[in-house]
Design a protein that fits this description.
single chain, alpha/beta, Rossmann fold, 5 helices, 7 strands, globular
């Protein structure tokens, strides 16, 4: 695994040595960030205006890619001890140890150090954790009202309805689907 673009381009990342994680591959990450960049631009936003939360972070590849592309601040949540250790190693090895990393359950995250407007949710496939974790993050004050969500699920899973969020785009890459959501898009685009 490596960082695809930005100031950390080409830097290698370790993958957690546990079968409980499933790192998002380089090509999928590249496509995801191409779509995300376009969606941000359509809303007169940029990576520099975002603060990311990489939930179910694993190696931290999604959050570190966002950081490399210009998101100035962010945080990671990872519960698995092996994956969390790998995440801390990756943060240190690319010079991003100042970013917050929480060893917590995303479905019971506790209180944050701030709020975030770019949320990466990449839970284990097939466990129905997207809606549950999103509600927990909202309830505990992690997510800003106008946040953009990037959700990774199994390609065969049905996307759950996410209350006030509107699905802007959906892409399928092999066994994965990536869904892009935003709040209130239908009102601002009409």
């Amino acid at each position: 695994m490596r960082i695809i673009a930005g100031h950390l381009r080409g830097r290698r990342l370790e993958a957690p040595a546990t079968p409980l994680t499933r790192p998002t591959g380089d090509r999928v990450r590249e496509s995801l960030f191409n779509v995300l960049g376009n969606l941000l631009g359509e809303r007169d936003l940029s990576y520099a205006s975002c603060r990311f939360l990489d939930a179910f972070a694993g190696s931290g590849a999604l959050g570190l890619e966002a950081y490399s592309r210009g998101v100035p601040d962010g945080a990671f949540i990872e519960q698995n001890v092996t994956a969390f250790s790998t995440l801390l190693h990756n943060l240190q090895s690319v010079g991003a140890a100042h970013l917050k990393a929480y060893r917590r359950d995303t479905c019971d995250p506790g209180k944050p150090h701030g709020t975030f407007n770019l949320i990466f949710l990449d839970p284990p496939y097939g466990k129905g954790l997207v809606r549950r974790s999103l509600r927990a993050l909202e309830r505990n004050g992690w997510i800003e009202k106008q946040a953009m969500l990037v959700v990774e699920m199994g390609a065969e899973e049905e996307a759950p309805p996410l209350d006030e969020y509107v699905c802007l785009d959906r892409r399928v890459y092999g066994a994965a689907q990536i869904l892009f959501y935003s709040v209130g898009v239908a009102e601002t685009d009409s």
